[in-house]
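Colleagues,

For the teaching module next term, I've prepared a clean inverse folding example: a structure given as tokens, and then the sequence designed for it. I'd like students to try predicting residues themselves before seeing the answer, so please don't circulate the second half yet.
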């Protein structure tokens, strides 16, 4: 699940910030280098930029998206350092200021965009680097600058390190495409043999390109290609396994560009090579399971358990969403009030932060578990609410309907109001009335005994008991194909049956 965010910035994008127009000229990790029409540069955190009230992207740049410096992690250290070294000099050429220049600093006269042309700045940089012992010409600087503007820091890496060989060798792309189609068709069908896949590939090629116009590979070559393309699909294996694997969501097996905390978080577990005494007194081994925020490299939560189960994932999510209280024996330097976080401003939002430790609370948008299986946050919310229902005190709740409602509203706010979208309409259809009521009131109406006011202890318990099954049923409806659309269509159908409801269509001359 992803909540609505401003689009990822790309090199060349024009944005508005503090009532001025800038161009994105560089991206380094979580920081953005902006330049106005006069060439004056500004370095700003990407989170702070996109959180500004007047921030807007005026026009998307045509250049490729700039990858994070994390894209260099897979390279040898000396090549990564060389790419970062080039980035430092190229940013100075483009903006007049090197990265991380102090606030208020001005460009050197020879790199001032207001006084020097881009070609003059490139020649000056080449002379400067040559004086430092680097045999670099102005033409090389220009070529590096053009590559950096087109593809970011990854484009200035030595391309001899980039693997170019294809896993499929010199196979005809048309044959490969037909084989992929044949393999995809086999997922919902019964199990077939490789020879059937070979025959089906020939039929697809004949239908798309004409009979005999595309040469089929030999049987041995086809078998090798089939083994590479069908890996993990179980085309010739168990149909149940094949369909089960096809139903799993795909994991992001690529370098993800993240712009804010919580945009991408990873749950990873690893066995610890220690022997401990478990709760039942039997010695055994345990696993460490942690939730890591990719953007900030923050460990939002971690638990040690004998086995990693779904309840552990919900516990990690609960700890990431809940302030960590200070514990006896901890130093005062670990208090949130001693950290750089805006403690006083956050205290007005959550009183629990008064005695909290300096661990940030991060709301996840996308969670990726180990082994590359991405789990939709809906499932995590379901597991978290189950844990809250069983042990409310462990999550800072007193078990009343008011605190349970506040907790659910907090989760909804953390998902940019996506989690409960359609919940009120779903409850109205279920209750048969109450289109002008909020969902907490509708839950109290649907509780055993109906609406009770003022709320008694018995009615409060009944409302809490009713809330969780209703949320579970709503999540089931949302996870269906076109679930949200179906909920709103059912609500619209219910509206049309009400005598008080009138839908007034606009006159033709009023539609413009």
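(Answer key — instructors only)
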């Amino acid at each position: 699940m992803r909540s609505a965010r401003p689009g990822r910035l790309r090199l060349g994008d024009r944005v508005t910030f503090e009532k001025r127009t800038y161009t994105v000229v560089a991206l380094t990790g979580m920081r953005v280098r902006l330049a106005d029409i006069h060439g004056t540069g500004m370095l700003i955190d990407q989170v702070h930029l996109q959180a500004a009230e007047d921030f807007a992207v005026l026009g998307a740049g045509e250049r490729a998206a700039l990858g994070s410096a994390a894209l260099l992690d897979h390279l040898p250290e000396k090549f990564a350092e060389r790419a970062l070294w080039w980035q430092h000099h190229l940013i100075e050429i483009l903006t007049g200021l090197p990265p991380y220049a102090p606030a208020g600093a001005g460009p050197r006269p020879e790199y001032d965009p207001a006084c020097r042309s881009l070609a003059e700045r490139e020649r000056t940089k080449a002379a400067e680097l040559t004086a430092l012992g680097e045999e670099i010409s102005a033409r090389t600087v220009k070529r590096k600058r053009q590559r950096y503007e087109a593809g970011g820091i990854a484009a200035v890496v030595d391309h001899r390190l980039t693997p170019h060989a294809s896993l499929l060798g010199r196979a005809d792309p048309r044959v490969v495409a037909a084989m992929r189609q044949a393999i995809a068709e086999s997922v919902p069908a019964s199990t077939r043999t490789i020879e059937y896949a070979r025959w089906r590939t020939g039929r697809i090629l004949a239908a798309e390109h004409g009979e005999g116009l595309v040469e089929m590979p030999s049987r041995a070559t086809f078998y090798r290609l089939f083994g590479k393309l069908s890996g993990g699909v179980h085309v010739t294996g168990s149909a149940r396994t094949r369909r089960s694997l096809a139903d799993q969501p795909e994991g992001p097996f690529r370098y993800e560009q993240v712009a804010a905390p919580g945009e991408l978080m990873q749950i990873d577990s690893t066995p610890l090579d220690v022997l401990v005494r478990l709760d039942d007194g039997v010695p055994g081994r345990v696993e460490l399971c942690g939730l890591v925020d990719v953007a900030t490299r923050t460990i939002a939560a971690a638990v040690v358990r004998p086995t990693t189960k779904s309840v552990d994932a919900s516990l990690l999510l609960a700890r990431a969403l809940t302030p960590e209280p200070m514990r006896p024996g901890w130093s005062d330097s670990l208090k949130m009030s001693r950290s750089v976080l805006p403690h006083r401003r956050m205290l007005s939002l959550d009183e629990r932060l008064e005695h909290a430790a300096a661990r940030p609370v991060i709301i996840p948008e996308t969670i990726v578990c180990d082994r590359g299986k991405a789990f939709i946050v809906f499932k995590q919310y379901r597991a978290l609410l189950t844990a809250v229902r069983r042990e409310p005190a462990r999550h800072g709740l007193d078990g009343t309907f008011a605190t349970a409602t506040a907790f659910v509203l907090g989760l909804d706010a953390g998902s940019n109001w996506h989690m409960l979208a359609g919940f009120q309409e779903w409850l109205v259809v279920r209750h048969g009335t109450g289109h002008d009521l909020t969902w907490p009131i509708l839950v109290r109406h649907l509780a055993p005994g109906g609406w009770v006011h003022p709320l008694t202890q018995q009615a409060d318990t009944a409302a809490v008991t009713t809330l969780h099954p209703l949320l579970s049923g709503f999540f089931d409806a949302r996870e269906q194909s076109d679930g949200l659309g179906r909920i709103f269509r059912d609500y619209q159908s219910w509206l049309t049956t009400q005598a008080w409801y009138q839908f007034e269509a606009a006159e033709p001359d009023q539609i413009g």
